[in-house]
Amino acid sequence: MGYRVVVAGATGNVGREMVNILAEREFPADEIALLASSRSVGEQVAYGDTDRKLKVQNIEHFDPTGWDFALFAIGSAATKVYAPKFAAAGCIVIDNSSLYRMDPDVPLIVPEVNPEAIDGYRARNIIANPNCSTAQMVVALKPLHDVARIKRVVVATYQSVSGAGKDGMDELFQQSRAIFVADPVEVTKFTKQIAFNVIPHIDEFLDDGSTKEEWKMVVETKKILDPKIKISATCVRVPVFVGHSEAINIEFEDEISAEQAQNILREAPGVMLIDKREDGGYITPIECVGEFATFISRVREDPTVENGLSLWCVSDNLRKGAALNAVQIAELLGRRHLQKDG
Fold this sequence. Notes:
Rossmann fold, 13 strands, 23% strand, 30% helix
């Protein structure tokens, strides 16, 4: 007997990826319902690479009673309306929005990092998926933290436009095309031209001069990994369609060499170490697209601080940063609590 699974927001970038990953990982689902707003009702979404097509239903009219999981990719405003309804009906919500991440009664989960925290889901019947940039970073940090205890992290992100949804991807394409054919460049989604440019601004500004995206990386990492870690983040949007990159500098309490770190990361869950000190001996965003792993390259010692390392971290933000992590949470919850056979 398998699970009855809902994917809400199934016509968006992340929702479609959730459907693909359920198929790829052969998630034990007896039944899958795809939900979206009224304007998408009747659309059909392919179930992975199979010939199977699933028809989209209206979330407003859907009864979640008797369904096991709901993977939400519908944004904070809609989640605020529908998550309590689904949770009250006994359908466990795995939410990709930022709405519940810092709620003390809602576990914030990256399965390779803090699987035991999922046991707290019963308080609200809701589990939060972290921010895309946070998810890949904590996968890289966790195995190193276990060995040498991290004191401080300084991270600069290079985040793809898919993190801003379909509109972000469309704007990069349209601006790039306009530049090549000498048409006017229109700026609508981002605050400045994104084609052939980088923008050090993701989400809204806060009073201290940081952005909300940077704040998310700080507070979410503390909640997932360790509240004692000091974190400074600078989040930058770059003209890449899919795949987030991060340059991470880490200061440890205990001594750790680059070679030790490489050996640890080579065996770490969810990590793929590609670190050859030669031309092309590292991973770039193009190469991570469609992959499950968080890729680590350029591991080296930082001589400017005691017990310091620097590394390069790349991951498909639509996968590990969103859809894959949500499906992994469902898999983890099934193993630890629901115990159904597919």
